[in-house]
Design a protein that fits this description.
two-stranded parallel sheet, 2 helices, 2 strands, mainly alpha, globular
Length: 87
Amino acid sequence: MLLDPENLDDFVWADSAYSGECFEDLLRHGGFESYIHEKDARNHPLSDAAKERNRIKSAIRACMEHVFGCMTTSIGGKLTQRGAHAA
């Protein structure tokens, strides 16, 4: 996960791999608003309301991820930039 305080928006969208209090605390400390998927636990399935919230988050994330996927595909692979000081 890349958090940049210079971004114009303060929303963070991520899947349930990034769920948990440690991530939520980090985001709050950085002034970000979390839209991370909720995760169920053994013997504690998600409520219907939590499943619906995850569905809404997934629909929005899919739109954003398709844009990045299209950009990646159009240049024939992943592109990374190195800073001037990187080796």
